[in-house]
Specification:
The complex is a heterotrimer of chains A (269), B (143) and C (364).
Chain A (H helix, E strand, L loop, with lengths): L1 H15 L6 H6 L3 H6 L8 H7 L2 H4 L4 H5 L25 H6 L3 H9 L1 H4 L8 H5 L14 H4 L6 H28 L6 H18 L4 H60 L1
Chain B lengths: L5 H33 L10 E4 L8 E6 L2 E6 L7 E4 L10 E3 L4 E4 L4 E3 L5 E3 L8 E2 L1 E4 L2 E4 L1
Antiparallel strand pairs in B: 1-11, 2-3, 3-4, 4-9, 5-6, 6-7, 7-8, 10-11
Chain C lengths: L1 H12 L1 H10 L2 E2 L9 H22 L7 H10 L4 H28 L8 H23 L4 H13 L7 H9 L6 H33 L28 E2 H26 L29 H9 L3 H16 L1 H4 L11 H23 L1
Antiparallel strand pairs in C: 1-2
Helix pairs in contact in C: 3-5, 3-10, 4-5, 5-6, 5-10, 6-7, 6-9, 11-12, 11-14
Classes of the chains: A mainly alpha (269), B alpha+beta (143), C mainly alpha (364).
Chain lengths: 269, 143, 364
């Protein structure tokens, strides 16, 4: 996001010669991590671009939120005294991510994946990647990735069991996005959907087909309630369009009548 | 300019009537939203208000907002609660509680009301409006 | 009943005389065309802005902490608030379209020429006032779009030599767009500019009425009128009466444009109101792809084309000054387009250039 902002604002500066405006002030408040690492090479620069494309970047989660340290001080940025944490070891990763993703961590440690952690089992990064982390989706469950460690069969079953609900939730999210773009207040529904999706994605981490199947109905129901609410709004929007079409039609009709009256005068002029 | 022909006149009358009709329809179609836009919105209609019992000591008055207008809660005797509209029935000023006399007094034109809202003196034409009270645990539910 | 009312008013105000003079005995040229109705269309649209603006004022709160929320309330909670707001916001765009058409038709027919210089100049100032109203109104919802469009627009003033920085600060009421900016833009948008606009519309109409309607420069019988050096009200004996003959045509075109406005409001408000208009302003995050409104794209793009900001701004100023002073520069009597090849060429090239630069600005 940083480089994106830099690029944007850079363009604006070229265009509008933003002399001494507060833009630069806003920029300076951003982390020294990015400023330094962007200028480094290879392995040390890679996280900048990777993070830039991530869901973390989109939501304003930046380097120090995970790695600690002091993002305002070049010299002390990576000092352990300022809380800096470097690259976590394989076995530490679930705890590292789990500082924020608490619920998922719980389900993960409960699962076959989690129990196998110290015997070479997968941790968060194995499936989600690290700096370039994306929104979790069912696409993460696929033959290629799962069969790096085990057979795809059971994973496929879980994916199949989750598919309908995932589609429902994704559909709700995209409908809400659409409504938000027309000025409809959807904050509440978005909050509910967000929570619902998180709970649902948590469910996957149990890697337990039976539990997924058991709980799907509850998710379907909660999703269905939001969907009904959305449909009511959409219906209202359709009604508005009908009324609008009526009003516009009436105005055009009046316009035509006036032209016809004008014609009767024209004939006499 | 030539004279109006009969055919044209007739057509004009017909079109004129149509135009008048549709215009009236349009005025209504756009007038209604404007009316609704400006019409007062019902504030908390049918909504009950909860007040903690500890806010209403015996012999004191607790003023609060009830469905958009001021109201008052009293506890004349332990466990007995009275809720009244605090709007004077004379000209709509807000009555004051005079604890030493145990009366409501309207500062605008010296109207006086008893604890139960009945008029004791002054210009008010009728008693303060009484509101229903339900006791629920350590709260009083008004309305 | 009607006669008695008229009698009553006539005795006191001489109303019959006024009506006759301005309606039934107000004669327009026989070949008056449809482009002459655009003034009436604009008058209607401006009245609509006035009414919807006052209605919005009932619920709008001019404070950075509340503004966006109050708009959200208007859009979601107040009955038909969305309709009133869209009529106002989309209406402003339709006004700019009709203003451009009105000006282009006047240019094409050479109606700005002597003795109608005042009509043109007052009209040109009206055009600029309307744009200023658009610009100030844009900030009021305090959305991301509002905030950054205003930041960019006020920043452009920084290119003025010497006083540039001071000017930007003055426009914003501070170093950055903020509370102070909203206060002054609000005052401008709801009081200063509308009052100026109303007064100037009055003057514009007075000029039109005083000097008389210009004859459309078309048809074989058209000859350029000799312009004398004393005041002459241009009469059109044997013309058609304004009322009812021409007024009904005004009404037809007005209804058409209102219909168009309603179609846009109900079916394509997104054309003029992008998604960024529904996000609250965030002074620390510049949204990607922030663009000015379509009618400012040409200005935005010219600033980018020129090697220096100042040259860009100066060239914009030059174009605007040229347009404003056109009747004083173009002094020939000829108004027939066919006999003004140079003007018509420049006219068409100008339109193309405007469109091309705007489109370039949109996609760049």
């Amino acid at each position: 996001m940083m480089t994106l902002m830099v690029r944007n604002i850079g363009a604006l500066i070229v265009v509008f010669l933003l002399t001494g405006s507060g833009f630069s002030a806003a920029l300076a408040a951003e982390s020294v991590c990015l400023q330094c690492h962007a200028g480094l090479e290879g392995r040390l620069a890679a996280p900048v671009a990777a993070w830039d494309s991530s869901i973390h970047a989109q939501n304003g989660i930046s380097c120090p939120d995970c790695h600690g340290g002091d993002p305002t001080d070049f010299a002390m940025a990576m000092d352990p005294e300022r809380g800096f944490v470097g690259v976590p070891e394989h076995g530490e990763i679930p705890e590292f991510c789990g500082r924020c993703h608490v619920g998922v961590k719980e389900d993960y440690f409960d699962s076959g994946h989690g129990r196998a952690l110290h015997s070479g089992g997968p941790q968060c990064v194995t499936c989600h990647g690290n700096h370039a982390v994306q929104t979790a989706s069912l696409a993460l469950i696929n033959r290629e990735d799962c069969s790096r460690c085990h057979e795809y069969g059971r994973a496929e079953e879980i994916k199949a069991a989750m598919l309908d609900t995932d589609r429902l939730l994704a559909g709700i999210q995209s409908d809400l996005d659409g409504l938000a773009k027309t000025g409809i207040r959807v904050r509440e529904m978005e909050g509910e959907t967000f929570a619902l999706r998180n709970d649902f994605h948590r469910l996957f981490h149990t890697v337990d087909v039976e539990r997924v199947r058991e709980q799907t109905a509850a998710f379907q129901q909660r999703g269905g309630e939001i969907r009904t609410e959305i449909e009511a709004v959409q219906e209202e929007l359709t009604t508005r369009k009908l009324l609008g079409a009526g009003a516009a039609g009436l105005l055009f009709l009046v316009s035509v009548i006036c032209f016809l009256i004008r014609k009767t005068y024209r004939d006499e002029e | 300019m030539t004279q109006a022909t009969d055919g044209n006149k007739e057509r004009r009358t017909f079109l004129g009537v149509l135009l008048g009709g549709f215009s009236a329809l349009l005025v209504a179609a756009f007038g209604w939203p404007v009316y609704r836009f400006l019409a007062p919105q019902q504030v908390g209609e049918g909504v009950s208000v909860r007040v903690d019992k500890k806010d209403i000591p015996i012999g004191a008055a607790h003023f609060f907002s009830f469905r958009g207008s001021p109201a008052v809660l009293l506890q004349p005797k332990a466990g007995e609660y009275i809720a009244l509209s605090a709007v004077c029935t004379h000209l709509g000023c807000i009555v004051k509680w005079e604890a030493d006399r145990g009366e409501f007094f309207c500062p605008c034109h010296a109207g006086r009301f008893a604890m139960d809202g009945t008029v004791l003196g002054g210009p008010p034409p009728k008693p303060l409006e009484s509101l229903s009270v339900v006791l629920e645990g350590d709260q009083v539910l008004v309305g | 009943m009607r006669k008695r009312l008229l009698d009553f008013l006539d005795v006191r105000l001489g109303i019959r005389d006024i009506l006759e003079q301005n309606l039934t005995k107000y004669l327009l040229p026989r070949n008056v065309n449809i482009w002459y109705t655009l003034g009436a269309v604009l008058l209607t649209l401006f009245s609509l802005q006035f009414v919807t603006g006052i209605l919005l004022l009932v619920y709008y709160v001019p404070n950075p902490d509340e503004a966006f929320k109050s708009i959200e309330t208007i859009m979601n909670d107040v009955p038909y608030g969305w309709l009133i707001r869209y009529l106002h916001a989309v209406g402003s765009n339709v006004i700019v379209i009709v203003l451009l058409l009105h000006m282009l038709s006047v240019l094409f027919m050479g109606s700005y020429k002597k003795p109608r210089e005042f009509t043109w100049v007052s009209g040109f100032i009206l055009f600029n006032l309307a744009l200023a109203l658009c610009l100030t109104g844009y900030l009021l919802p305090w959305s991301q779009l509002s905030f950054w469009a205003t930041t960019v627009a006020t920043e452009a003033a920084g290119a003025v030599p010497v006083i540039g920085d001071g000017l930007v600060r003055f426009l914003r009421g501070g170093a950055m767009v903020g509370n102070a900016t909203l206060g002054r833009f609000f005052a401008l948008h709801v009081m200063v500019l509308p009052a100026g606009l109303a007064a100037l519309i009055g003057f514009h109409l007075f000029c039109v009425r005083r000097i008389g309607i210009s004859k459309p420069p078309f048809g074989e019988e058209y000859v350029p009128t000799e312009v004398k050096d004393k005041f002459v009200h241009e009469e059109h004996p044997g013309g058609i009466p304004f009322f009812p003959n021409y007024a009904i045509k005004d009404l037809a075109v007005i209804s058409f444009f209102l219909g168009l406005l309603v179609v846009l409001v109900f079916f394509a408000p997104g054309l003029f109101i992008p998604p960024a208009a529904f996000e609250p302003a965030d002074p620390f995050t510049t949204p990607a792809h922030i663009k000015p409104e379509w009618y400012f794209l040409w200005a935005y793009q010219t600033l980018k084309i020129f090697p220096s900001e100042f040259l860009g701004l100066a060239s914009q100023g030059a174009v605007m000054a040229l347009l404003a002073l056109l009747p004083f520069l173009d002094r020939g009597r000829e108004r027939r387009p066919a006999r003004r090849p140079l003007f018509v060429t420049c006219y068409l090239l100008g339109i193309l250039l405007f469109a091309a630069i705007s489109i370039w600005g949109h996609y760049s």
